[in-house]
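Weekly structure sync, notes
Attendees: PL (lead), two postdocs, one rotation student
Agenda item 3: pending single-chain targets
PL asked that the sequence for the first pending target be pasted directly into the notes so everyone works from the same version. It is reproduced below exactly as submitted, 209 residues in total.
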Amino acid sequence: MTDIVVMDVLIAMFAGIVYSAFFYAKNQTSTGDPFDPTKAISTLIVGAGVGVGVQLSGLPITELSIETQLLAFAGIIALVDAGIKAIGNKVLTKTKFFRQLSQAVMAEGTHVYTMTEASLQWLTGDLPFRLQDPVANAVKEAEAAGSYTYAIRAGNNIFLIERAQLVGHKKYLLSWGVFGSNVVWKKISGETLAACRKKGFIPEWGSLT
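Predicted structure, written out during the meeting:
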């Protein structure tokens, strides 16, 4: 009897995981949001629990019943997601902050700071070859836009730039957060950079504003 109950629970957990994966995939497609590994994992974890709950309630485990419960437990998914991200920032990533090593260079006749060759080499020197030119291009685009502080996402790295110098670097130690060969940049506020320094870590890309 005990073996049967355990098997039923395991089947319910598996069904909850499968249907929650469908739920996450459909939501991602409808919203157009990029794949978020921690949110996906959080959805699967809560989905497993939902599957067991539905099974114990005596209701049939269907895609609709699981999705209905997942919608109701959206807040729980968000809490699990936040917890995983917090652990990931401490355990699965390495963050460094740097002091500006030299006076920033301002382009003649403008109010735009430009990165020196030495600073650019320091930024890109340890990157895979496929990322070096895209990162250099991102720097040029940011400077052309007159950005004072900005962030660059490249592979499993996030860089923070202030006054054309690297001031912060977050590296994902495992496959967690790897973004392939895609390199993008965006402006961030001085308040965001100050908060990163104060807390001692760089948050996920979507939280950098």
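Discussion points:
- Residues 15 and 209 are 38 Å apart (CA to CA).
- The first helix runs from residue 2 to 31.
Action: rotation student to compare against the earlier draft before next sync.
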